[in-house]
Design goal:
Strand order of the largest sheet: 3-2-1-4-5-6
Number of helices: 11
Number of strands: 6
Order of helices and strands: HHEHHHHHHEHEHEHEE
Structural class: alpha/beta
CATH superfamily of the largest domain: HAD superfamily/HAD-like
Length: 309
């Protein structure tokens, strides 16, 4: 059993009262058993239908607009960290050798702007500034900045743009194929039948999102999405980002269901008024804390497939 599923089930069953009354042959009331629940006794299961803050919301009963994270939700975190990121680092030199000098200058300028936006105490910024010099050539500047930011998991616009261009080459050459969980295409088909709008919000650029889904292990899935959002809408841990997305979608935040594997993102979404923040638990995702356990938890996107209005 997956460690996260096991942990969740233990939490849910901890000190929970039994839902059924077990009766021995000596104390079964035969008249009650004839009409009772599971051939035991008369009882009601009305409590099973009570909706709480931790109940898993259902599409389209509770929301017709679905906003999905990518890493740890539709796609394995290991694909991004073990395949996409190493691809950039291992192919950086060869890629830059094919870039025109004027384009190298543009890339270097964008990466320096990324670093300038970091706090002066940021470890990536300090490391990059220590290795850089005024005499460094654009290609050297790019390598130092890319490796420094990626080594410390910095997410920045200029860096994402360069990564996206490199990934595009990899996807077009079939060296890369976007990982997709088995249940995701089934969810997409179900949402299409139920008129549920599916939208993507990731820290990866919109271009990178479309490359992953357009060259996935399950084929081109891009036609299933109504909108893509990235950090140009704001940081994923910033509640204002979700308000911006709701405005772009033309709906109140309360009408949106947002699924993510990141606790801080769900907290920000809840603060913004997102109606249905949902925690995605997948193999390889970070263990949940008490904060994550405050949200409805799913182990498959198919758990969101409910009923019509």
């Amino acid at each position: 059993m997956d460690i996260f599923l096991k942990h969740y089930l233990e939490k849910m069953t901890e000190n929970a009262p039994a839902k059924r009354i077990k009766l021995s042959e000596n104390n079964v009331n035969e008249s009650a058993a004839a009409t009772g629940f599971n051939a035991a006794i008369d009882q009601t299961n009305a409590a099973d239908f009570v909706i709480t803050e931790k109940s898993i919301p259902l599409l389209p009963r509770d929301a017709t607009i679905l906003l999905l994270d990518i890493e740890g939700c539709t796609t394995s975190i290991s694909f991004v960290h073990d395949i996409l990121f190493p691809f950039v680092l291992s192919n950086l030199d060869s890629y830059l050798s094919s870039v025109k000098p004027e384009d190298l200058d543009e890339i270097a300028t964008a990466l320096k702007a990324d670093v300038a936006k970091l706090e002066e105490t940021n470890i990536a910024r300090k490391e990059i500034e220590m290795k850089s010099s005024n005499d460094s050539l654009p290609r050297e500047i790019i390598c130092i900045h890319v490796k420094g930011m990626m080594n410390h998991d910095v997410k920045a616009t200029g860096l994402k743009s360069l990564q996206g261009k490199m990934w595009k080459n990899g996807y077009n050459s079939d060296e890369l194929k976007g990982h997709i969980y088995e249940d995701f295409p089934m969810l997409l088909n179900w949402c299409k039948e139920q008129n549920v709008s599916v939208n993507i919000y990731s820290s990866g650029s919109i271009g990178a999102q479309k490359l992953l889904f357009g060259h996935s292990t399950k084929g081109d899935l891009c036609s299933n999405f109504q909108n893509h959002f990235d950090t140009t809408s704001g940081g994923k841990k910033d509640s204002g980002s979700y308000i911006n997305i709701a405005k772009d979608l033309g709906v109140d935040p309360s009408k949106i269901m947002f699924v993510s594997d990141a606790e801080a993102e769900l907290v920000a979404a809840r603060k913004a008024g997102i109606g249905f923040p949902v925690m995605s638990v997948r193999p390889g995702n970070a263990p949940l804390t008490e904060i994550g356990e405050e949200f409805p938890i799913i182990f498959s996107l198919l758990q969101l497939c409910g009923s019509g209005k």
